[in-house]
Amino acid sequence: MSTSRKDIPETAPEAYRQAIARVIIDEATLQARISEMGEAIARDYEGKNPVFVGVLKGVLFFLADLLQATSIPLAVDFMSISSYSPSSREQGYVRITKDLDICIEGRHVVFVEDIIDTGLTLGYLLKLLRTRNPASLEVAVLFDKPSRRLIDIHPRYLGFHLPDLFVVGYGLDYREQFRNLPFVGVLRPDFLKLS
Ligand code: IMP
Ligand code: MG
To answer: Which residues are catalytic?
Structure first.
């Protein structure tokens, strides 16, 4: 099959290399954009000691790199969610399986997400956090698939627009695999059919 295997770093596990059709965003491009995002956030939140909130697990890599690129005093906390069922996820209902440890009332919150697809999950979580009366609440997202959006969300900080493709790597998984790739790629259609 004529895929551009040459683009896929040789350091990636061989099993992953075989499953990936092509690289969509390489490591250097990701890191350069995340540095810019961190610098912008640092300028906007200087002196505000913001709380960065991430939803596990997809945001792990982005959040770690973004925090290091944001060189101001800040705090970080996590939430974990699970959908009741595929149909409830479509409606944006999620169950909180791990809530924040930090009280965000009166704090400046930067909600950090890996990817916005329909926007339903994020919409639900933002509504929940707003009920806790933060001083401000803004969104930093690495990937946006605007063509799939069902509700209106405009992230203050955005890394990349993506076409309507299922992507893996840099925290994003397919059945819990591929998160540990430092780049973002698409899977081969025959791999998706086989598994
Ligand atoms: P939304 O509620 O449709 O916006 O769902 C967003 C969530 O779906 C993300 O936080 C990811 O966990 C997952 N997701 C959406 N698109 C992708 C993708 O292309 N690859 C991997 N996970 C994805
Ligand atoms: Mg996620």
So the answer is: 117
